[in-house]
Fold this sequence. Notes:
Elements lengths: L15 E9 L4 H10 L7 H9 L4 E7 L2 E9 L4 H9 L4 H8 L11 H4 L1 E2 L9
Antiparallel strand pairs: 1-3, 1-4, 2-3
Amino acid sequence: xxxxxxxxxxxxxxxxxxxxxxxxxxxxxxxxxxxxKIHSREEAWPEIRAGIRSVGILEMEIYIxxxxxxxxxxxxxxxxxxxxxxxxxxxPRQAEWEEYVSKFQECVPxxxxxxxxxxxxxxxxxxx
Length: 128
């Protein structure tokens, strides 16, 4: 997809809130290419995708520019971040996944997802 085509945003049956996060990858083109590959629909671990959904996350998108990642997470309004991240960290294969992807990321190898990905503060919006 080229930049000028854009993309359609999924509509949910309930009002949603967003969490935006950032993380840096190791600045290594081969590692970045592999990181992209392991996040493809064909190679992403099904247990990880199911776990993300099971804690109440409706949608998750990751964007990349060089070695910088930006993630958008959409959840229902009653979603509690700390509770969900704690539950996620204890799901089957989650710790194994976090250890596996840490070789691509600038982080401590034993970090949980919530420790690696840093929540960002919204400082501007165009809504009326």
